[in-house]
UniProtKB/TrEMBL annotation, chain A:
It comes from Streptomyces lacrimifluminis. GO terms for cellular component: plasma membrane. It holds the Pfam family BPD_transp_1. PROSITE patterns: ABC_TM1 (PS50928). GO terms for biological process: transmembrane transport. Residues 1-35 are annotated as: Disordered. It is a multi-pass membrane protein. Keywords: Cell membrane, Membrane, Transmembrane, Transmembrane helix, Transport. Belongs to the binding-protein-dependent transport system permease family. It is found in: Cell membrane. The chain crosses the membrane at residues 41-63, 101-128, 140-164, 196-219, 240-263, 300-322. Signal peptide: none annotated. This is Sugar ABC transporter permease. InterPro entries: MetI-like, MetI-like_sf, UgpAE/MalFG_permease.
TrEMBL record, chain B:
Residues 1-24 have a biased composition (Low complexity). Residues 1-29 are annotated as: Disordered. The chain crosses the membrane at residues 38-59, 103-122, 134-158, 170-190, 211-233, 268-289. Belongs to the binding-protein-dependent transport system permease family. It is found in: Cell membrane. It is a multi-pass membrane protein. This is Sugar ABC transporter permease. CDD domains: TM_PBP2 (cd06261). Keywords: Cell membrane, Membrane, Transmembrane, Transmembrane helix, Transport. PROSITE patterns: ABC_TM1. The lineage of its organism: Bacteria, Bacillati, Actinomycetota, Actinomycetes, Kitasatosporales.
Length: 332, 304
């Protein structure tokens, strides 16, 4: 019925279905052996177009991002009137010496951590809830979740802008119906923290479905016998979750958390569109800040330096993820 | 549904462990889960309403008469039915131009991406070669690069290549965005096709190529379709690069929607109609392929 039930087992021991690419034995071995050189070239030939595109449009810019952040690069360099000259660490010292930059860093981290925690906790609770509701309710919730997952970010942002509109937004109207709350005409975006809270809600709303569905697939892999055994040994619902479910789901949770951190540190269109293309100072996150430096102030070098610092900030998180992926690779 | 049923019956069993004999369990089991389920269902209903509300409100606003949309005390239920907002959304600014451009870009990206991606996926899933692991790690690592950080150098690169404000520039950029993911997912699908089938065909006299075309390809087709649709959605939904790399006159659909308010004041009802036009086809596509994709993704994610 639901995605969770039909997905391929999320945690399988290396099965016999997957044959490791060892030299085949038996009748079909001779043709392979005869042309070892040709066979070695085939995979690279197959990979070539893919690697070419990736190196050109992802690898080269990545290198360029680094070199750019050590240069002076503004309008005149963009149009080729002046050659880009190296300025050493000037860009970094300027950026790092700017109090606004540090305010943006703190804001970005608080925002991302808030998003990730809400997404993961909310996603886990809903995934657990889905195991307990009736079948039809589960189907309905799954449809709604997948629909909101599939909503283009721009559309979702536009819709949330409308929901939280100060004069005609439904949220203000509904909240004002509560006793003691008077929010008609309240502008959520007059203050940075409130506006970012709305944006956080938007991000979490869009991110939860993926987490729920992936965790749901993982939950079906938790052996019922283990849960039952724990329960017979006197574990309560929390004990079963803490000592049986959670350890089994750990690899999936690590993966999801890492991905969430990367995505939530990279939130851009939500802020950009919500603030009509000109985020105010107290709405700036590292992404919009870097964008602003490059394309509004036309200082491409400083923009790159900020982007590079963002990447470095993320590297720690990515390292954890890569270790996890490599571990999975080792199983193979 | 079987999973759910077995859970509830085990709950019933454990909570009534003192009852001896299977008949007692069978009698008590149906009553208890039903009672506890109702509570969970109420919670489920709450989740359903919260998660679904933005989508509902978008549709509600899109189809209600424009004057009801600016009611300070809006009714939660539909107040009428009109297509006027859609008419307004289509005339307020050129709609089909951006949509056409988005279609060209997304379709081209998907066709090239799936072909190139399938070749690469074959290489890393069906061949043993030196450097295979590095390629796999590389493809995974590339996915980790935050795309937002790359906008400046990509902009400069395309500017240098004379591809700024060209659809081809946007296409090649999107291609790099969807490729790592496409390779990874297709790899998951290929890994699930038993290698023995190919080997059997090769024993029977097929060449490696024809074994692929006659055996693997038909089995891979559903995975290819799902991956294509997913890639299409990614390309269609992209906003930042479309905004940066294309000028106003060449804007794509997402940028069109993003600009909706700034140019024409706040006409929320037509804006929601525009959102509906953008979202419904994508959400339907997504609903169709999501389950298949989840299968491919998990297969890919776990078997390294």
């Amino acid at each position: 019925m639901s995605a969770a039930e039909t997905t391929t087992p999320a945690k399988l021991p290396p099965s016999t279905r997957h044959v490791p690419p060892t030299p085949p034995t038996g009748t079909d071995a001779p043709p392979e052996r005869r042309t070892p050189k040709a066979t070695a070239a085939i995979p690279w030939a197959l990979l070539a177009p893919c690697l070419l595109v990736l190196v050109l449009v992802l690898g080269y810019p990545l290198v360029r991002l680094v070199t750019l952040s050590f240069q002076k690069f503004g309008q005149s360099q963009l149009w080729g009137f002046q050659p880009a000259e190296s300025v050493g660490l000037d860009n970094f010292s300027q950026v790092l010496g700017d109090a606004e930059f540090w305010a943006v860093v703190v804001r970005t981290i608080v925002f991302a951590v808030g998003c990730v925690v809400l997404t993961m906790v909310g996603g886990m609770l809903i995934a657990l809830l889905l195991q307990r509701v009736s079948g039809w309710m589960k189907t309905l919730i799954n449809i709604v979740l997948v629909a909101s997952w599939g909503m283009p970010i721009i559309v979702a942002t536009t819709v949330f802008k409308w929901l939280f509109d100060s004069d005609y937004g439904i949220v203000n109207a509904l909240l004002s119906k509560l006793p003691g709350v008077e929010l008609i005409g309240h502008n959520w975006f007059a203050s940075g923290p409130q506006g970012l809270a709305v944006i956080m809600l938007l991000v979490v709303w869009g991110a939860v479905p993926f987490v729920v569905i992936t965790l749901g697939a993982g939950l079906t892999q938790v052996p019922k016998e283990l849960e039952e055994a724990a329960r017979l040994d006197g574990a309560g619902a929390w004990g079963v979750f803490r000592y049986v479910t959670l350890p089994i789901l750990k690899p999936i949770i690590v993966m999801l958390t890492t991905l969430s951190v990367i995505w939530d540190m990279g939130v851009f269109p939500q802020v950009f569109v919500m603030r009509n293309g000109h985020p105010e100072a107290e709405f700036q996150l590292l992404t919009t800040y870097s964008y602003d430096r490059a394309f509004a102030v036309n200082d491409y070098a400083q923009g790159s330096a900020i982007a590079l610092l963002t990447v470095v900030l993320l590297l720690g998180v990515v390292a954890v993820y890569m270790r996890q992926m490599l571990k999975i690779g080792d199983v193979e | 549904m079987t999973g759910t049923t077995s859970t509830t019956s085990t709950t019933g069993t454990t909570s009534t462990t003192n009852v001896t004999g299977t008949s007692g369990v069978a009698l008590s089991a149906p009553a208890k889960p039903r009672r506890s389920k109702a509570g969970w269902n109420v919670l489920g209903l709450f989740v359903l309403l919260t998660a679904g509300f933005p989508v509902y409100w978008m549709l509600n606003t899109a189809f209600k008469p424009a004057k009801d949309a600016i009611d300070p005390d809006p009714s939660l239920l539909p107040t009428g039915f009109t297509l006027g907002n859609f008419h307004r959304a289509l005339t307020i600014a050129d709609f089909w131009g951006p949509v056409g451009r988005s279609l060209i870009v997304s379709l081209t990206v998907v066709v090239i991406g799936v072909i190139v991606g399938m070749l690469a996926a074959l290489a890393i899933s069906r061949f043993a070669f030196r450097g295979r692991k590095i390629v796999i790690v590389g493809i995974l690592a590339v996915q980790m690069v935050p795309l937002v950080a790359m906008i400046i150098p990509v902009f400069l690169l395309l500017n240098d290549l004379g591809q700024y404000d060209r659809l081809t520039g946007l296409i090649i950029t999107y291609l790099t965005f969807i490729l790592p993911f496409t390779v990874w997912t297709l790899r998951g699908f290929i890994v699930n096709i038993p290698k023995e089938l190919e080997e059997a065909a090769m024993v029977d006299g097929c060449s490696r190529t024809s074994a692929f075309l006659r055996v693997v390809f038909p089995l891979l087709a559903p995975g290819l379709v799902a991956t294509s649709v997913y890639g299409f959605i990614q390309a269609w939904n992209e906003y930042l690069y479309a905004l940066m790399l294309m000028s106003q006159k060449n804007q794509t659909a997402t940028v069109w929607l993003g600009n909706f308010t700034t140019k024409h004041g706040t006409e929320y009802a037509p804006m929601m109609a525009g959102s509906t036009l953008m979202a419904v086809p994508i959400v339907v596509l997504f609903l169709l392929v999501q389950r298949k994709m989840a299968a491919g993704l998990t297969a890919g994610a776990v078997k390294g």
